[in-house]
Structures are given as C-alpha cells and as structure tokens.
Amino acid sequence: QVQVVESGGGSVQAGGSLRLSCAASGLSFSNYNMGWFRQAPGKEREFVAAIKWSGGYIYYADSVKGRFTISRDNAKNTVYLQMNSLKPEDTAVYYCAADKAGVTAINGYDYWGQGTQVTVSS
User: Fold this and answer.
1) What is the DSSP string of the chain?
2) How many alpha carbons lie under 13 Å from residue 120 in its C-beta half-sphere?
3) How far apart are CA 101 and CA 117, in angstroms?
C-alpha cells in the first residue's frame, strides 16, 4: 500500500522560512517523480514544484521561483520543499504527490498525501 505523508507545516511571519518534508512508502521511490502542490481557501489546487526521479530535472511555478527549493533524498524516500521569503499569499494546504510520469499537471499524479497547512501572517 502506497503512503505519502507530509510534515513540517506551521505558522510563520512574512519573510520567514519553513521546510516541508514528504515521506513515501510502498513504492520504489527512486523511480517516481515527486511534486508539491498547494490549495488556498476558495481556490483551485495549483502546482508549486516538481523533481524527477533522478533529481536531474526540477520545475517551479513562477510564483515561487527564487524562493522555494525542491530536493530529494532517495536513500530516505523523502522529498523536501525549502520555502524562504514566505509571503501571505503562500498560505495554503501543501500537498505532496508521487507518480512515475507526472510532472507539473495535477491530474498526472496517482498518489497524494493528506496535506500540511502553511500559514503566513503579515
């Protein structure tokens, strides 16, 4: 059974930093692309960042480029999202997802976590 579990969310003031972690089990992690998505209240879920199985290709939404960094540790079956210079508009539930082929498209991912709340106050 595949499990994807996010952690590391919380509340922070604008300009602060958080690091999200996502641990995946029940799959061959090193063969899977991993993505981070977010959903703010009243808005649709949107792509944030993705990293391919080898770590060689990385993608970011324009809204987070230069502030967020995605990375993975295949030995630990874990993907990370380092979020710096946080803004109130980054407030959302952040979801981690895994798929062999999906990259930036939400419907390209088969496995999803339950999400972790990130709240940025001004």
Assistant:
1) --EEEEE--EEEETT--EEEEEEEESS-GGG-EEEEEEE-TTS--EEEEEE-TTS--EEE-TTTTTTEEEEEETTTTEEEEEE-S--GGG-EEEEEEEESS-SS-GGG-SEE---EEEEEE-
2) 18
3) 26
Tell me the pLDDT of the chain averaged across its residues: 96
In Å, what is the CA distance from 90 to each residue of 31, 79, 119, 121?
29, 19, 7, 10
- Angle CA(44)–CA(41)–CA(78) in degrees, nearest 5? 70
Nearest to 4, CA basis, from 26, 21, 19, 24: 24
Contact 46, 37 (CB under 8 A): yes
Residue 68 structure tokens: 């967020």
Region at 85 (left for phi over 0; alpha for psi -120 to 50; beta for the rest): left
Instruction: Write out pLDDT tens, residues 17-49.
Output: 999 999 999 999 999 999 999 999 999 999 999
Q: Are 34 and 44 in contact (CB under 8 A)?
A: no
